[in-house]
Specification:
The longest helix is centred in the last third of the chain and has 11 residues, at 95-105. The chain has helices at 26-29, 58-65, 69-78, 95-105; strands at 11-14, 20-22, 55-56, 84-85, 91-94. By secondary structure, it is of the alpha+beta class. The model has no long low-confidence stretch (mean pLDDT 74).
């Protein structure tokens, strides 16, 4: 059966696993009653949600507080914010310590 969309080549270059793929208009041109293939989208690998994390990274804290990363780096360098240095360049923030630190800094 030929395609009614007048595609010049019936297959595209070889796919990821070495098999020739039907041309991309196969679904649109209506060959057969069901589509031969569906568009495959890449999904970003996601980590399971961990809402009870007690240690936060720079990026997580910046997102939580809506503060630029550079500001957090400056606060850590000055010692203005409580943090834990795991290695020379690895810094983490304890959620409970940050909550206590923030509550102590609130003005009336």
């Amino acid at each position: 059966m030929t395609c009614s969309c007048k595609a010049r080549k019936p297959t595209t270059p070889i796919g990821r696993r070495g098999a020739a793929l039907p041309h991309r208009d196969t679904i649109l041109c209506g060959i057969g009653t069901e589509p031969i293939f569906a568009k495959v989208t890449k999904r970003k690998a996601t980590k399971p949600a961990q809402e009870d994390k007690s240690m936060l990274t720079y990026k997580e804290l910046a997102t939580w507080w809506n503060v630029p990363l550079g500001t957090l780096y400056a606060w850590v360098a000055r010692g203005a914010i409580p943090h834990v240095r795991l290695a020379d360049r690895s810094v983490r923030f304890e959620r409970t310590t940050l909550d206590a630190w923030l509550s102590g800094r609130r003005s009336a």
